[in-house]
Amino acid sequence: MSDNGLFLTLEGIDGAGKSSHLDALEALFRAQGREVVRTREPGGTPLAETLRGLILEKPMDPLTESLLVFAARRDHIVQVIEPALVRGDVVLCDRFTDATFAYQGAGRGFDEAVLSTLEQWVQSEAGRATLLQPHITLWFDLAPEIAAQRLAGARVPDKFEAQPVEFFSRVAQGYAARAAADAKRFVRIDASQSRDQVWQQVETALVARGVLSGGVTR
Length: 218
Ligand SMILES: Nc1ncnc2c1ncn2[C@@H]1O[C@H](COP(=O)(O)OP(=O)(O)OP(=O)(O)O)[C@@H](O)[C@H]1O
Ligand SMILES: Cc1cn([C@H]2C[C@H](O)[C@@H](COP(=O)(O)O)O2)c(=O)[nH]c1=O
Known about the structure:
5-stranded parallel sheet; 5 strands
């Protein structure tokens, strides 16, 4: 399968600040003449959004959780992500498979070999030479204690947001391990800085990667 699009994902622990930059990123790509599909995981299709409700609210064992996450992802890939990439669009996705390795793998302690097998099944496509992976992943790296302070009182916590800081320490380590294993794809963003400084890092990284023209402002 040929794809001329750009698959850009944003990752980080809950409260790291990634969603705060989605509007500006979408506007920036559109201003540079790109079609943008903005989406999220779990979710992005009616079926996957239904699964999201279960994943974020219902208690379940880690294998069940992982299977539901990958089922939602499969529908999302088939219905939304692959068609958009083939059209040449920018797919701006709030979380993808790195979140599964970080949350279900490192956070819950679920078997990463099983996650890798599911990744192979779900992200392979007839006609696609390699596994579907994001072209660029912006990893918003923030200490769990600061993320918890930012989220405190901001909204009613879901099943994951209600987890203790130790859980998010493991999730953060999971992200660090994924980033180390695929350093070409990951861009580490120091998310402890102010919103404007974080945005500057995002913009600079995307210009350096050649996916945005220089001299852009928010
Ligand atoms: N750089 C920043 N400095 C201080 N507060 C921030 C910063 N960026 C975002 N925030 C605030 O932190 C909270 C979490 O931000 P945001 O919703 O963007 O995080 P997130 O990574 O998308 O979280 P989640 O994955 O849980 O949805 C919000 O209240 C937001 O206003
Ligand atoms: C993709 C994915 C997500 N999660 C978790 C991570 C977050 O706590 C929620 C999504 O909420 P957000 O406000 O949209 O960030 O789901 C997960 O555990 N595993 C995954 O694969």
